[in-house]
Amino acid sequence: MQKLIRNLMPLFAVLIAAMASAQGVSWQSKVEPLEGNAYRIVLEATVPSGYHMYDLGPYEGGGPNPTVITFTPGEGAVLDGEVEPLDPPHRYHDNVYGMEIGTYEGTVRFAQKVTLTAPQALVTAQLEWMICDDTSCMPPEDLELQIAVPEGAKVAPAAGDQAEVAPAAETPATKDAAGKGSIWALIIEAILWGFAALLTPCVFPMVPMTVSYFLKGEGGAAMGRLRATLYGLFIVLLYTVPIAVIIIITRIVGGDAVTADIFNWLATHWLPNIIFFLVFMIFAASFFGAFEITMPSWMVNKTDSKADTKGLSGIFFLALTLVLVSFSCTGPIVGSVLIKSTSGEFWTPILTMLAFSVAFALPFTLFALFPSVLKKMPKSGGWLNSVKVVLGFVEVALGLKFLSVADQTYHWGILDREIYLAIWIVVFTLMGLYLLGKIKFAHDSDVPYLGVGRLALAIIVFSFVVYLIPGMWGAPLKGLSGYLPPLTSQDFVLGANTAAVPAVSQSGIGKPKYSDFLHLPHGLEGFFDLKEAEAYAAKVRKPIFIDFTGHGCVNCREMEARVWSDPQVLDILRNDYVICALYADDKKELPEDEWITTDAGKVLKSLGKINSYYALKTYGVNAQPYYVLQGADGQPLVEPRGYDLDVAAFVQFLRSGVEAYHNADRQ
To answer: What is the pTM of this model?
Structure first.
């Protein structure tokens, strides 16, 4: 067991398998010709290892969720018979359900016969399924497949047919609502992590190896500079290219929609967020000295043996050796950088990884260019382990963000703002005590006296703790608004009325929909359903302030804390607008009469998916925050606005909307 913990590869294998299973069953389709104009559509489902999928049922009286396959023929096709499973299920009496059920494991095939009345046609397959293991079940998933018959035919769907292949063609080009400030914040953070990685105990000792290698170089100063530059370039490529290749393949195979869906799933679904949280905790435990996460020794030794060769290959393998040997310390940091950037667009993870690797490679490149600088560097020792432990405390604090996202998105109520703050206060207090030498870990060296550097860091950490403490009583803590749960999740706010949020004043329609689990910040009143907001706005003759937001949206919380909190902004929002907050990541499943069907025929059941689809179809945005000022005709009054912390500009944005509304009303 201990060997498995020390080996990183099984860990990643487990995580990858878990994430693969979370994305559900893998489906493929093919079309087989029969006699004449008859064809057979075969769907092949691959169930993740360790899971089973239920058969077609049907089950009544509290049985499991069966697999549902519904074929809808387009013009020129007629279905022949029902869906037929080609592989028999494993049938047994289940004591929990009290009935006989059937399950599939591994690969299973289903068939549907189709007869063409035209040379070619399009058939839509709507799939719904659920997978379980021996202890728990994943939430039900759904998928829609567009199948051309015969296979390879290019079919244009009939007008009005719900089986349209490309609804995105009817939507505006997607915009980045996150704003231009967010990517720079991620890049700066990645650069800081890159420099911090140099001070870890498995990276810093690699500096002498780098210097000794380049001291032996031949070919003069010009060749030395070239070799050093290539060394740094290889380090950057070894960190950046793998993630770029994965993202590019995803984009090529699945297109923009699939890439966006993956990012959205990673950012909001409970399973990846819980996995990320656990990964951070495991890495923190490793930093604290509980165990070492290392690459397999055979891989490192084989790579290191090739680093002694001359020429470009030797430089490349030296860079690869550095990456592999240092992975036990850089792995957690790389994971932090990538995980924090997964809510961005196509380029965000690539750019953040590039920023990290450039910062990480820069010192090694400089040492290779100027080996004499090494004499001025401090010797490795116990201080490196102290850096590692401090990073462990940081990992614990940052890991809570992912648990908080899942908690907010699914309304679990296990990590409210005061609990989150309490954990942070304890974590950073322990870090301060560690810096003062009051706490000691297994691999720490004795600290005979307190250095100026440790004292300065301890002062900074304890000052941060003092800054956090008022948050337990409702202080806004604007500098951390993007990391903390919203203030509305706090049970007690000093000097505030802790009663339930009231219904919109004088609305005459009672309590707004979804206000039992959704709330606006700063005591603002409003709606969470656009139709309801439009009805009320028509009654009071005010424009609508539409806030496309999300529970896991860092920039949304920052806008609310730094911009919405301004007295001018609050006054305008409270008196001149009807506020409607549309959460794009809420997992609340709505009643069936509130489900909507997309242009492609896919049924959206959750509040978040419906709001996200509306934002993409109407305004071409798939990121939050995004603010729309809507007039009486349902159209934007002014150009919508994304993330921007300029308070004066936001006030002008709101005032221009009010002015445009009144001008239109007078016409």
So the answer is: 0.48
